[in-house]
Amino acid sequence: MKKTLPLLLGILAPIVFVAIFTIDGLFRKDYSAISMHISALSIGSNGWIQIVNFLILGVFLFIFSTQILSENTKEKKSKTGPIILLISSICFLLSGPFIMDSMGTLRENMTTHGIIHGTLGGIVFLLMPVTCFVFYNSFENEKKWIHFRKWTLTAGIVISLTLVIFTLVTKIEYINKIFINYLGLMQRAVIVPYMIWLLTFAIKKTTKR
Q1: What are 152-158's contacts with CB under 8 Å, separation 24+?
Q2: Are 60 and 10 in contact (CB under 8 A)?
Q3: Tens of pLDDT along 22-45?
Q4: Residue 21, SS3?
């Protein structure tokens, strides 16, 4: 049971996170999931919901990652993937209390907590495709993971492509002006595939015990 619980939390982490920000976004009158970032839900009187959502994701993913790291250490497998997941979990956890600034805030007008949130987010987004590619390599000589390995590669490619597009849209001004009303949708195009991969990975780890 002690070993199973962390794996179950790995399954719950992406489900709870996506469910909460989706439902919360639907019931916010001043919020648009198509044009606004997920983190924008942390702003305002009801912002505590998304803040707690980040905390839950961070804690659940941390416990899950610790279990995977422990298993890989005992079995003398690569520890790189679990360590990257641990780093991501810490970034998600800290993203809760360090609330982002309102969308459209100029760099020179950003608050300290807004800058920290943005930095943490940048790390998380960068590590999303990296996580998939690292685990793809670690599954190379494991027959029981051969089919999941293909899915992991596919997920890594999809996340990489959507991340490049999202980055270009947010960083290049004239492109940003064209797609400014679709920033939320583009961000979700990066995050949701990663959460699906994380969910399926956790399920596979549970069923293959």
Answers
A1: 152/197, 152/201, 155/193, 155/194, 155/196, 155/197, 156/129, 156/132, 157/129, 158/193
A2: yes
A3: 999 999 998 999 999 999 999 999
A4: helix
Amino acid at 73: T
Q: Are 155 and 197 in contact (CB under 8 A)?
A: yes
69 DSSP 8-state letter: H
Cα separation of the two ends of the chain? 12
The answer to whether 16 touches 61, Cβ cutoff 8 Å, is no
Contacts of 161 (CB under 8 A, 6+ apart): none
Query: Could you tell me which of 53, 30, 57 has the C-alpha nearest to residue 42?
Result: 53
Amino acid letter, 79 = K
8-state DSSP, 101: P
pLDDT tens-digit readout, 104-154: 887 888 999 999 999 999 999 999 999 999 999 999 888 888 889 999 999
Element (H, E) at 180: none
Q: Measured between alpha carbons, how far is 21 from 11 in angstroms, rounded to an integer?
A: 17
**Helix or strand (DSSP H, E) at 206:** helix 183-207
| Distance, CA of 69 to CA of 83 (rounded, Å) | 7
